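[job 0412] stage=complex_fold ligand=alpha-D-glucopyranose status=START
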Amino acid sequence: MKINVSLSRPIIIFFFTVFFVRTDFSQSSTKYQSADIEKKVADLLSKMTLDEKIGQLVQFSGDSGRAELVRKGKVGSFLNVRGANEVNMIQKVAVEESRLGIPLIMGNDVIHGYNTTFPIPLAEASSWNPELVTKAAKIAAWEASANGTHWTFAPMVDIALDPRWGRIAEGAGEDPYLGSVMAAAQVKGFQGDNFLNKNSIVACAKHFTAYGGAQGGRDYNSVDISERTLREIYLPPFQAAVESGAGTLMSAFNDLNGIPASANHFILTEILRNEWGFDGFVVSDWNSIAELINHGFAEDKKEAALKGITAGVDMDMAGDVEAGNVYLPNLKSLVESGELSEEIINKSAERILRIKYRSGLFDDPYVDSIYFAENIPSSEERNQTALQLSRESIVLLKNEGSLLPLKKELKSIAVIGPLADNQEDPLGPWSANPIVEDVVTALKGIQEKVSAGTIVAYAKGCTIDSSDTSDFNEAAEIARNSEVIIMVMGESRDMSGEAASRADINLPGVQLELIQKIYELGKPVVVVLMNGRPLTIEWIAENIPAVVESWFLGTQTGNAIADVLFGDFNPCGKLPVSFPRYVGQIPVNYNYKSTGRPYDDELKFTSRYIDYPNSPRYPFGFGLSYTEFKYSNLKLDKTKIKKNESVEASIEVMNAGSVSGKEVIQLYIKDLVASVTRPVKELKGFQKIELKPGETKTIEFVITPKMLSFLDVNLNETIEPGEFHVMIGGNSEELLKASFEIVE
Ligand code: GLC
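[job 0412] stage=complex_fold status=DONE, emitting structure tokens
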């Protein structure tokens, strides 16, 4: 998708550069292709035995005791091997002791940083700052490659509408467009402009596909959706990753419309290969091919191997070797018995070799520690990037009476909560190789931020999820003696991520009771949340004057939180996922269909609940600032266009407050009448700008035919005449609206 933009002068360079690179996915899908590599792949393949080709399709977790397998060319990759020396040792066996010297590709889960831990991806998406996300991914690639990782199992690009699903933490939330932008930004950061750089790592868009559609939000559960939903909601971020040149994809655990994703020819071959032209390779998820047996889709491992390889899964992540090892023991006999064509093996081996060549492994199989020591970005730069991304990931949900920002000169502050003085949980799920002792806690950040004369008292008050209230009184005591109370509450890091679905998404344990007890003291209370998913926080939202969503921010947690709480950084985060009021509302996403009886709180016979409103507690795209942005003068340069024409929208945005601030200006489109029902609105673009107090900028978007197209009843892309609404604002609910019409 290409969005050409002309803007008012002040930010033309920023916007044009950003959008041109980020949204023009089609251009880069061929940027890594090379005739020279194709020739090398073909030459090497022609020399390989069947055993050696099958060996390339095998990945084990951990290399201990497996040198002989490597020497015999029976394994092509490992995961969970870390450290330059460890990797160089096993790589030496592959390169110098096996017959053809084919290097191993070492994969690891570098999801949001390697040593320097960045905010979890759901938090990164809250920044709506793809350039910063790319910068963080680049730093992750530096640190990971310096430690022997060639390939990361990221970005996780699963769209998630259900906050009960723990893996919502790992992705970019509920919207296909924002998810596509974040997917491309991470691929660009990991792989760089040229795979061959020693500090680039191969990206892996996962989990292909629709894993986030698990019924009941229960991890690994079945997914049964229409092809329309598959193509409109779940596939776009994967396509963005592929068009950004991602070297690999990972097939998912879930069964999709009756066919497990790890043996689903429709998605793995018909869509991924035939429609999108993907020429990298697909790795299974951990044991997901062997699990075809549990799905009742394969009789045994032999049938599982046959179904996985023929559907298009090139590499078997035989993580738990006993349970998972499917390709190594079965593929040769399948070829010899004539049940499997060797051509299919050749194709998978070719794809894996292609990525190994593209990533420079044949030229440079060993970690060059001197190169990294001399070139890796300084820890100052790495931490500064982490701090800035953490700051921009924080979402201000409520600030009644402008309680925030707090004064640094307060006489006394009570810091309470199980996540306040905690270096582990703020790392969030899937931190790769964090340096835990480097994590700045919320307490430490606050202590270092306030004046020397400020007394900062701390009490844990309760644990994250026990029913023990015995420490309540100690917390109440320090609160009584303080001017302001900051409560840092939320989930533990293992309450989101994999195998961490929750049926109840309230604050766990007795944390709400503690907040209510402290609130009764009648002092100003700020609640800072640390969590990996939207939570249902009705009482807090109704009663607590200031509520800050910090997700899990990683290494720079405390510094970022303190910068926001005390005004050294004006919060600018916007929610990438809607917050339900009650778990019973789920899904509560913003881009819903109007139905034949659109919701009306006054009318019984409309699409609604009798006990609560339909609206979310906090909508997609929502986030407050310490200043106020006023939108005005939404204009379109045309009110009638033909199908292949564009419309230019302009709007004025003013900083009406007294402090500078960043704002994410969001563009939504609605197609009022079409041959299929269309969402009430869809995000089609955004820009993040900074305005000084009193400053006004005119922001322009070009609304292109691509943005107005949709899939018709036969799932063919089309544009139809009729009226469209253009809506622009600072979140998905508070929008200025204008209309135009496509005429025949
Ligand atoms: C896990 C996850 C996947 C991860 C892989 C390797 O089960 O589903 O996201 O990359 O195994 O750790």
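Residues 1-28 have pLDDT under 50 and may be disordered.
[job 0412] exit 0
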